[in-house]
Write a structure and sequence with these properties.
DNA-binding, about 110 residues, homodimer, alpha+beta, about 15% strand
DNA sequence: CGTCTATTTGGCTACATTACCAAATAGTCA
DNA sequence: TGACTATTTGGTAATGTAGCCAAATAGACG
């Protein structure tokens, strides 16, 4: 594979990698309903603040969220709302899987 | 975070992880233009056959592609064409990044 | 200024992923 | 059946990722 083409797929993969974690998907979903500070997200997620901060920094460096410091808090917001379209597709993949699973079970597999 | 909700995000993350690799994104893109056998993909990618086979098996177990053995060859096809919608969004993220990069440079950063 | 609070960064360990090689499997065809 | 081809699977070493704790940073406010 040509190295220019490869670099193109790697740039895309960086974005997908940023979304390839349950906590980060939760964050994106939550931010789709409005901006949230790190402390709010930390509370909802129930992990160490430093862990949540690192997840946010990955999303930020992928260009998916933006941060805005106001007073003591840093508010994050979804910069690329188009990623929300991924959720619908993911759900349809999961439904299809569930459907096929049932068919296999009913065949006695 | 509630464990049922967490499981939901983890199921989604599994699908995103399957797409979080440049080679697998290339495969999905290629399969969007029609089915291909492992040997054709291996040739285009230029990696070991076993490596390509493992990438395909990840995409398959995530429910994104389907395989069909015909004769000596196994043909893979894209089962979830909705993932192609991701590409447009990834490109817009990349364009936004490139745009912001230029602004920073022009400010002498 | 000093203290308090929110967030980020560095360090470390445990775990996951990738790629290659070698070997196993499965179908084809003489 | 036996040789051949396409693909998958197992093993292993190198690399990447996630989480926690501790320490650093930065703004707010007395």
């Amino acid at each position: 594979m040509d190295s220019a083409i490869k670099a193109r797929y790697e740039a895309r993969a960086k974005i997908m990698k940023a979304l390839a974690h349950s906590t980060r998907l939760f964050i994106v979903d939550e931010l789709s309903r409005g901006e949230r500070c790190v402390c709010e997200l930390t509370e909802m997620i129930g992990a160490d603040t430093s862990t949540v901060s690192k997840h946010l920094s990955q999303l930020k460096s992928a260009g998916i969220v933006a941060d805005d410091k106001r007073g003591l808090q840093v508010y994050y917001s979804l910069k690329m709302p188009c990623v929300m379209g991924f959720f619908g597709c993911m759900e349809s993949v999961l439904h299809t899987q569930a459907h096929q699973q049932m068919k296999l079970v009913s065949l006695g597999e």
